[in-house]
Amino acid sequence: MESIKDLKSQFKKYVIPSVSAMWVFSLYSMVDGIFVSKGVGSEALAAVNISTPYINTIFALSILFSTGATTVVSMTLGRGDDKKASEYFTLNTIVLVILSAIILVLSLSNLDRIAVFLGATTSTLEYVKGYLGNIILFVGFYIVSYSLEVLIKSDGYPHLSTIGVVISAITNIVLDYVFVLKLNWGVEGAAIATGFARVFSFSFFFIHFLRRKGKLRFTKFKFDFDIIKRIVSIGIPDCVTEASMAVVVLLFNQSILRFIGEDALVSYSVICYVNTLILSTMIGISQGMQPICSYYYGKKDREAVLNILDMGLKVVKVASVASFLIVVIFTNQIVSMFIDKIDENMFNYTVTTLRVFSFAFLIMGYNVITSGFCTAIGRPMLAGVVSIGRGVVVITISLVVMLFLFGGKGIWIATVVSEVVVLVMARMIMRSCRDEIEESKYADVRIA
């Protein structure tokens, strides 16, 4: 049985790099928006926001396999079978490469349809196509680099995930400045900058596994459909958590266009960037503790699993309160990064809506970590109840009800209401999981 001191050390070792990586990823996404807003204009910023559901969907597909793979691989390493773990790692990577190629072909051949489906208007259509058309060229690097970033933690090198993401972020920021502001390439330049950043991060992680320094390495493998199904079933909850961002942005964009007007898309773009940063923080904490929980669950060390969970819940509580206070206190400064104060009406409207929306930050962390913990201990169905609830079902119902009751103003309240409803379910599920573990009622930890 591990000591509390050792567990805290492991928790910090995995969670800090995970959160840092998510922060850097979110921040350089925000930088994209800032450069586009300052270098091109508000319509271009709205176009980038309209494109976001596609990018979230691509990222969600990577998470679908990456989270499932890291759980399966970590449990396998916990049982001491390094060879099998490497086979699962290689299989997962090859599947993602094939998936990326299919997405690339389908997306490029349907670019106009995708842009219109996402909500591109007459004034934003060319911007959306210009941005997405270039992002799609790098879709393979998007998908595979994130998988390698997550699995490098399972390999025992969590600090490398942070280094790789920082390299990517610096590349993106520098190229954004050059392509958007200096060369005036517009939204196309922002997309190309982001794509090259992904190429750099992929190269960094790929080289690590080629060097065979850790336990995981590329090796011969047998295509095992049962393992793929297992990986996918475990990854579904976290995938839905990310995909929910795509669904929510799409639903909100359409509702804003219908009930408020196109100008409000700019306000929602700012809210989306802030929400992505906060949600990414919570996901980073969840993903950081998942490999450790899975490892000790594989060893059937129930005390260690519960101690790691308690640490995660404490950190999420602090992060939730801090996020809410920072956004409420510094709302003006945050909004001014995207919208010039000269446009007084839009600036003030965005400040007001962001403050209303920020109450959701107090709750979402608990919901995310509940889903992540259920995933880590191999309970994808329970995790799915939370992630699908907050990501698709409850938020959709909440949006419809709030629109009916309050009209356009209800759009900004819907997320808070949704998180509260999901919180009730999440607490019941968390209590059930804790009771099961405390009573040592371990189901078989099934890897294959």
Automatic annotation (TrEMBL):
Q: What main location does UniProt list?
A: membrane
Q: Which GO terms describe its molecular function?
A: antiporter activity; xenobiotic transmembrane transporter activity
Subcellular localization(s) per the UniProt record: Cell membrane
Q: Name one GO biological process term.
A: response to antibiotic
**Which InterPro entries does the UniProt entry name for this protein?**
MATE_fam (IPR002528), MATE_MepA-like (IPR045070), MATE_MepA_subfamily (IPR051327), MdtK-like (IPR048279)
What keywords is this UniProt entry annotated with?
A: Antibiotic resistance, Cell membrane, Membrane, Transmembrane, Transmembrane helix, Transport
Q: Which GO terms of the cellular component aspect does the record hold?
A: plasma membrane
Its membrane topology is listed as: Multi-pass membrane protein
Membrane as UniProt keyword: yes
Q: Where are the transmembrane segments?
A: 14-35, 55-77, 89-111, 131-148, 160-179, 191-210, 231-252, 264-285, 315-335, 347-369, 381-405, 411-430
Name the family.
Belongs to the multi antimicrobial extrusion (MATE) (TC 2.A.66.1) family. MepA subfamily.
Stated name of the protein: Multidrug export protein MepA
Q: Which organism is it from?
A: Asaccharospora irregularis DSM 2635
